[in-house]
Write a structure and sequence with these properties.
seven-stranded mixed β-sheet, tricarboxylic acid cycle, 14 strands, alpha/beta, EC 6.2.1.5, succinate-CoA ligase (ADP-forming) activity
């Protein structure tokens, strides 16, 4: 089984005819993802990459039965694109866009909180269920089907973890890149919860980074559930200097609990198998699962 996306998802691309949207839509179609069309205002009625283009998400839902969207819209308009998708009834909204103003995301979070949808991102690599649907910008060939769930704040470390898991002889149920901004639609805890409730996911890899409290909240949740599935955890930014943003907008040590060391300590206390290098993720998961 999988979470969020699978072979039956009916996916549209917002910003379909733009440079980024076109490039990644083509890659997703090649992977076998069920892209049913796309949205570019003013270009409705045209065809692009052999798929219909609609003027609005509402049209794509009505005419194409879309239930999932991936957003490649410039930062100034991406917040509106997310809200448009939520308003139209899209269930899974994946926003790749980097650099959305925090103030816009505050409005977006407020707007979508009472709606029946899940937002992944922004500033994320997307979601992949190997062999079924790649809804994102990740290199699909790295991911092989299996029963390990991956939740990551870092895009490149998502791919690294997948590679390590596969090299250890395991595979991935779904990998979720939650995004590295200060405000994201699905924090680590909520993503972990999806895997805890997925009967076919037997272990979870949780990759975090300095800044914020997402990992601590997730670790506490895992402990409260009685550690019912083994979790291997890694925190990026172990040598980051305090007060400096590292890569992601949300990766900044603002207090003593934001450091990699503090997060790793909390995770270990909550029963998570903490590794100090991404190179140890796969072998540690294999050891933990096989006892």
């Amino acid at each position: 089984m999988s979470v969020l996306v699978n072979k039956d998802s009916k996916i549209i691309v917002q910003g379909f005819t733009g440079k980024e949207g076109s490039f990644h839509a083509e890659q997703m179609i090649e992977y076998g993802t069920n892209i049913v069309g796309g949205v570019t205002p003013g270009k409705g009625g045209q065809e692009h990459l052999g798929k219909p283009v609609k003027n609005t998400v509402a049209d794509a839902v009505k005419d194409l039965g879309a239930d999932t969207t991936i957003i490649f819209v410039p930062p100034a308009f991406a917040g509106d694109a997310i809200m448009e998708a939520a308003e139209a009834g899209i269930k899974v909204i994946i926003c790749i866009t980097e650099g959305i103003p925090v103030q816009d995301m505050v409005k977006v979070r407020s707007y979508i909180q009472d709606r029946d949808c899940t937002l992944i991102g922004p500033n994320c690599p997307g979601v992949i269920t190997p062999g079924e649907a790649k809804v994102g910008i990740m290199p699909g060939f790295v991911f092989k089907k299996g029963n390990i769930g991956v939740v990551s704040k870092s895009g490149t470390l998502t791919y690294e973890a997948a590679d390590q898991i596969v090299k250890a002889g395991l595979g991935i149920s779904t990998a979720i890149g939650i995004g590295g901004d200060p405000i994201v639609g699905t924090p680590t805890k909520e993503a972990i919860e999806l895997f805890m409730n997925d009967p076919e996911t037997v272990g979870i890899v949780m990759i975090g980074e300095i800044g914020g409290n997402y990992e601590a909240l997730a670790a506490q949740y895992i402990k409260e559930t009685g550690n019912k599935k083994p979790v291997v955890g890694f925190i990026a930014g172990q040598t980051a200097p305090a007060g400096r943003t590292m890569g992601h907008a949300g990766a900044i040590v603002g207090g003593k609990d934001d450091t990699a060391e503090a997060k790793m300590k909390i995770m270990a206390e909550c029963g998570i198998h903490v590794v100090h290098s991404p190179a140890e993720i796969g072998i540690t998961m294999k050891k933990v699962i096989e006892g």
